[in-house]
Amino acid sequence: MSGDWKQRPEGGGWFAIWLIRTIARRGGRKIARLLLPPITLYFLIVRGPERRASRAYLGRVFGRPARLLEVARHIHSFAATILDRVFMLSGQMQRFEVRMDGLAAVHEQIDRGRGVLMFGSHLGSFEVLRVLARQRPDVTVRVVLDKAHNPAMTQLLDALNSEIARTVIDAGQDGPSIVLAIQQATDAGALVALLVDRAHPGQPSQAATFLGDSARFPVAPWLIAAALKVPVVLAFGLYRGGRRYDLAFEVFSEGIEMPRPQRSAMLAELVQRYAGRLQHHARSAPYNWFNFYDFWQGNDDAITPHAVDGRAAGGRAVGDGHAGPRAAAARRA
């Protein structure tokens, strides 16, 4: 399967997602969950690339060939978290049992008033992080998302909660605009959340050992963190079945310093540390891996000093555009 995950179409399209939303909102979660078996069957039968990617990943994490029922459980877990997103974004977090670990450390970083970068992944549910809004209503949460990649889901989420939709930082912008928006948010003391596990083909990435093999991870998030010098917290919202989620926070850095002469070595070390934590949580919740493509094929672009200096947010080029001193600071990082 091609490593270019962005070329995969959305499963089911807008109508299917709208149907799930309508049934969930009118019939409740128990009735809506009756849709999960047919959705799982659809992906098993129709979506061959996702089925094969699931089997390949599970084989890595289990250390043996994956069974078809395990692939079905994997897809079912994905569908369940998508359904739960409807309720989470509708402000119905009380429906779920969320066990949190490491929250005090996040509060400590937030209370320093510098803003925080929260790095998530396509492992588990990123939306369960909305529980933070209940814990700290005084803190603004901004999420960096590529609206163009999943237009049907974007329209659905906009319809569910327009207030949250207005806080999204669109990763489809040019690099300087993204960096500027993130810095403005952190300067205001916001918590900015973004997914940092998928490398865009053709953009700078760093190889790291992950589940026994080499995989490539994007470097842009780490360059942004070094430019802004704000704390970095890792977040994992792991689905445990039923209505149970585990939300784990880990303070990764209180501020990344990356001197130019040590940049390549430091990027390699940061990405490998991150890959190690991602692997730890993937092994603890193997059915939460929602990268349904050949993650290890990735892209073969090597990092060069020129490439690192010239690229930034969202895997997009930070070239010679005039984005003001903030974006210039990001380029210098």
UniProtKB/TrEMBL annotation:
DNA damage listed as a keyword: no
Q: Which domain of life is it from?
A: Bacteria
Output the Gene Ontology terms for molecular function.
Answer: acyltransferase activity
Bilayer-crossing residues are 219-239
Its predominant location is membrane
Matching entries from CDD domains are given as: LPLAT_LABLAT-like
Signal sequence span is none
* Cell location: Cell inner membrane
Q: Which UniProt keywords apply?
A: Acyltransferase, Cell inner membrane, Cell membrane, Membrane, Transferase, Transmembrane, Transmembrane helix
- The protein here is known as Acyltransferase
What is the originating organism of this protein? Answer: Novilysobacter erysipheiresistens
